[in-house]
Structures are given as structure tokens and as C-alpha cells.
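Milestone 3.1: sequence recovery, worked example.
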């Protein structure tokens, strides 16, 4: 049976199954939902068995349980490992939702609910594509599934689980649907993700807050000093000044830069959407290169002194900032973290004390477009959307993708179908039914071509 017809004839069932998952508020950030995490994992186990898996099980971890399932075709066939997550973000603020976040509704051609896209809807695309190829005896390779319940809190237990179960998770390629496309009419495959390093800086001056009239001009102000130090991290060309920061930064190949240049991008609309009159970044690179395949430094928060109503003439004792760098593939986040700590300590003047605390981080990732699995995904998008997808790097981070490569030695193909309009992590999250259908068709085609 042709896949479009199969989707049409079974869509009511697909929705019932997806809605049964969405109605479970599997919020990993809130400990009161611990029972919901297990319930959602058990439901996924049941659905994967019904879709055609030979076996499925709920496995314990240091945190929330994981779901593992597999379908074995041949010892000589390659193996695809499909990763997804069943946990979701908290739904607050609830008053901004137009419908109940955990009671899914279909309206305007979209599914409205928390997890509709991220990641229950996209994970269901994988499950239903798998179901189709199994039921029609089209599956040529082995398939494994690993669904976790902690992605939205940084996957704290997954790293140890992967190391403990390397043999179980052994595969030739990983397939993930947890990313987005450039637009409904602009199909795209994510080929790169940036890494992350994050710190908190504390600057201490005098041993207490001082009267700015009595001491101002004679004692260093920690906020002034912190701002001065931060200002030294970016030079006039938009480059980060930390010594050896760029040692492992590879230049984007000319062919990829050419592909990026072909992405339809209206800089004026981009500026209008975020309310700025001018853009700023590293000299010699376009906006789309700067926010996807070049490293960056940002102050995420800064505070100190008196910030209440009215005025208070104070020279504060302490100042703080939370800062981060987005990294590119081959930049080790732990190496960069130490380089940053060393640099801040080096430029810190003697009239203050400085403490830098590394917070968290992860590696970047790049998927070569020459991979057979990438080319199979490309054929899938071409079949479903009627045009070849653009290869794009994204500015965000999914640290577990680089962990998969580091621990298992496997590359990942990011075959996501989300759109900006889906408002993931926000009130009124939704997912287009058209994307859901095309996603299944595209993943079926992947299985047929890999």
C-alpha cells in the first residue's frame, strides 16, 4: 500500500496513540511527575511493540527510565539507532494557553498541546514510519530505539547509560527527529550544531558596600571592573580575544558557505522581527554564518549593587555575571572552559578578587553530507516535499549528539520536521498535521534508501 494512503487510512489511530502520550504530563523538571515519567515510558514500550518491534523494555537509569526496543532483520545488515525523548517542558504560564496543554486539540490543521512537536509528535513520526516499513516487509536493516526522559533537563543520566550499554546500543547510524526546518516551503536538514560552555563570574572589591561619596574615585568599583573585563573579551572585529580560543576552529568549506548563501534570508525582516536597527558580529561572515557555524560570546546576565526602586548612592562590594560561549565542532568545551578561566584571572586587576565558576557545557557536532545515511535522508525529504532539502547548520546545542559520537563512535542524521511557528517550550505549542504526514513519508523513504 502506498504510504500516503496508509497515513490517510490510519491517521485517526495515529492521533489516538499520540494523544495517549501527550495526556501524560511527563515533565522531567518537576519531581512530582516521577510517576508520569514511568507511565509515559511504559506507554512508549507498548506502542513500539505494536508498531512491529521484536522486543521492547523500560530500563532504569540514575534518573528517569529509558525505553529500548529493537527489530532484527539480519546479522549482515546495518543498524539504525533511533533516538527521541519523551519528557516535556513545564507548561507554565498556564493562563496563556488557549486550550489545556495536556488535553490535545486539533484546530487550524495543527495539533495543539505540550509535546505536540517536542518531541512526542516527532518521535511518533519515527514510530509510524517504522510501522509502515515493517508491515509491508520493506525493512532492509536492523532498527533500535532509545527514548529517554531527561532531555529537557540536560540528559544528566544518559551519558552513563550509554557507557554502560555500549553493546546494546551498537549501530551504524543514529537517526533523530528533534530539530526544525527553515520553513514549511523550505525543507532543510540540520548538518551542524554548536557546542556550549557556561560560567559565572564573581568580582569582589571592598569587604562591604561603601558610601559612593566617601569612597568613590578612591576604591575600585567591582561592577565597573567586571564590565571592563567583559568588554575585553570581544575585539573591534567581533573576534573573541581569549588566547588559543580559535586553535581548533575549522573554516567552513567553500561549498557549504555557498549553500548557506543560497538560503532565502531577508535581513531587514530579521531585524524588524527582533526590533534592532543594525546587526553586529564577526567581520567577514554573513548573519547566517555567524549564528550557526562561528563561535560566539554572550553575557547572559549581570548584576550587583542596588537595583531597587529609587536611588541609593552605593559602591558595591560584589558584582556578578553569567556568561557563555557557543562553540563550533572540534572545540572541546572543557578545554575552552579552562582557557576562559585562565584568561579572566590573567586580566583581573589586583584591586579586586575574581572567582570564575564553570557551570555546564557540551560539544558541537557536524554531519558530513557525503554520509550514505544523510543522502538517504535527503532522498526522503525530496520525495515528501518535492524539492531537495537545504543543508544547514544551527546555532543551538544538543550535547547528547556529540556524546553519542564520542562514546559509541556513531554519526547522527538530524531529520527534524519542526517549524518556528510550533512554539516549542512556549505556551500554545503546536505541530502541523501536514508536517506530521510528510515526516512519516520522508522517514519511510529514508528506510527504503539506506
Amino acid at each position: 500500500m502506498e504510504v500516503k494512503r496508509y497515513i490517510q487510512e490510519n491517521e485517526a489511530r495515529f492521533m489516538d496513540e499520540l494523544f495517549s502520550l501527550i495526556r501524560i504530563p511527563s515533565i522531567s523538571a518537576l519531581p512530582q511527575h516521577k510517576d508520569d515519567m514511568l507511565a509515559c515510558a511504559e506507554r512508549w514500550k507498548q506502542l513500539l511493540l505494536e508498531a512491529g518491534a521484536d522486543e521492547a523494555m523500560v530500563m532504569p537509569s540514575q534518573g528517569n527510565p529509558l525505553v529500548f526496543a529493537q527489530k532484527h532483520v539480519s546479522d549482515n545488515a546495518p543498524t539504525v539507532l533511533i533516538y527521541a525523548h519523551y519528557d516535556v517542558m513545564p507548561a507554565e504560564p498556564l493562563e496563556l494557553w488557549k486550550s489545556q496543554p495536556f488535553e490535545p486539540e486539533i484546530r487550524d490543521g495543527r495539533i495543539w498541546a505540550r509535546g505536540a512537536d517536542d518531541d512526542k509528535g516527532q518521535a511518533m513520526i519515527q514510530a509510524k514510519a517504522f510501522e509502515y516499513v515493517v508491515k509491508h516487509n520493506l525493512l532492509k536493516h536492523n532498527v533500535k530505539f532509545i527514548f529517554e526522559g531527561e532531555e529537557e533537563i540536560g540528559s544528566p543520566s544518559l551519558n552513563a547509560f550509554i557507557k554502560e550499554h555500549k553493546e546494546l546500543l551498537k549501530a551504524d547510524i543514529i537517526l533523530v527527529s528533534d530539530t526544525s526546518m527553515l520553513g514549511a516551503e523550505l525543507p532543510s536538514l540540520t548538518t551542524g550544531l554548536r557546542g556550549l560552555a557556561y560560567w559565572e563570574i564573581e568580582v569582589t572589591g571592598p569587604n562591604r558596600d561603601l558610601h559612593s561619596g566617601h569612597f568613590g574615585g578612591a576604591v575600585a568599583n567591582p561592577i565597573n571592573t567586571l564590565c571592563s573585563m567583559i568588554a575585553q573579551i570581544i575585539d573591534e572585529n567581533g573576534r573573541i580575544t581569549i588566547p588559543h580560543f580559535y586553535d581548533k576552529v575549522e573554516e567552513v568549506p567553500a561549498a557549504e558557505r555557498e549553500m548557506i548563501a543560497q538560503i532565502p534570508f531577508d535581513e531587514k525582516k530579521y531585524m524588524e522581527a527582533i526590533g534592532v536597527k543594525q546587526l553586529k558580529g564577526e567581520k567577514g561572515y554573513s548573519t547566517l554564518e555567524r549564528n550557526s557555524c562561528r563561535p560566539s560570546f554572550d553575557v547572559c546576565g549581570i548584576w550587583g549593587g542596588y537595583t531597587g526602586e529609587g536611588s541609593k548612592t552605593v559602591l558595591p562590594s560584589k558584582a556578578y555575571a553569567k556568561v557563555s560561549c557557543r562553540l563550533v565542532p572540534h572545540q572541546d568545551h572543557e578545554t575552552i572552559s579552562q582557557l576562559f578561566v585562565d584568561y579572566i584571572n590573567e586580566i583581573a586587576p589586583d584591586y579586586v578578587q575574581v572567582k570564575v565558576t564553570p557551570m555546564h557545557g557540551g560539544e558541537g557536532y557536524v554531519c558530513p553530507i557525503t554520509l550514505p545515511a544523510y543522502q538517504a535522508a535527503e532522498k526522503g525529504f525530496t520525495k515528501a516535499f518535492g524539492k531537495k532539502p537545504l543543508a544547514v547548520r544551527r546555532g543551538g546545542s544538543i550535547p547528547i549528539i556529540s556524546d553519542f559520537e564520542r562514546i559509541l563512535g556513531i554519526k547522527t542524521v538530524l531529520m527534524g520536521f519542526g517549524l518556528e511557528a510550533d512554539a516549542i517550550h512556549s505556551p500554545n505549542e503546536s505541530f502541523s498535521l501536514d508536517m506530521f504526514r510528510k515526516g512519516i513519508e520522508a522517514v519511510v523513504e529514508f528506510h527504503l534508501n539506506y
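The CA atoms of residues 98 and 428 lie 7 Å apart. The chain has a mean pLDDT of 96.
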